[in-house]
From TrEMBL:
<dbReference type="InterPro" id="IPR029062">
    <property type="entry name" value="Class_I_gatase-like"/>
</dbReference>
<dbReference type="Pfam" id="PF17124">
    <property type="entry name" value="ThiJ_like"/>
</dbReference>
<dbReference type="InterPro" id="IPR032633">
    <property type="entry name" value="ThiJ-like"/>
</dbReference>
<protein>
    <recommendedName>
        <fullName>DJ-1/PfpI domain-containing protein</fullName>
    </recommendedName>
</protein>
Amino acid sequence: MTIPKVLIPMADYGHDPTETAVPYTAFKKAGFEVQFATETGRAPECDKKMLQGVTQKLLGATKSVVDVYNQMSKTPEFQKPLSWTSSDFSLDAYNLVFLPGGHEKGVRQLIDSPVIQKHLSSYFPATIKPSSKTVAAVCHGVMVLSETKGPDGKSVIHECVTTALPARFEQVAFWGTRAFLGDYYKTYGAGSDDVEKSVRKQLDDSKTQYKNSLSMSPFVVLDEKYNYVSARFPPDAQLLAEKIIELVKSTIS
């Protein structure tokens, strides 16, 4: 029996703990082998505002998520990630590349990385069905893909059906917390494009390809041509993990 191999690239700091720990925990429970990667092999940290203090209680991770995050953060794979800038780093051996989100400005280290973009520009086209390779992303993680360009200069997801963080959600969070958190909820600063707009701009036809839901119920989108799964924000994390596991298992059986 083939054991699926998963890679979770992360910034040194700033990813959302729910979008990281919930899928990680589900992958491990499903028997997947999981590795992390950061730019230089430094152990990553998720956004502390989502894990502790008043911001955690009002806006952040639930107690159960904090518990599974704490468990994940003590594992050898989290403490000693791979370095994506290492000369021998490659995505080729992985069945799944999972891109968590997070609005803290530190995640720009991953979104803007030319090295990660180079690796994904080769890996993502290999997810065309039938394939044993899958890519999944949630929230700002979708921007890693939308900003990754292929040889034709187009985003690697230019023809995919996708979702991402809805602009309405991002705007409500930004304006609702601006008085005490400043532009915390705008990853590229006040006045920058919302995640939804950034992703839509990279699609061939955003009216038909971008799938949106403003419901609080979990919402996940699967592309038909590629083994590509996307979701919006933390409340989607458990369903997203379940759909990813189902898809990955179907591709290697």
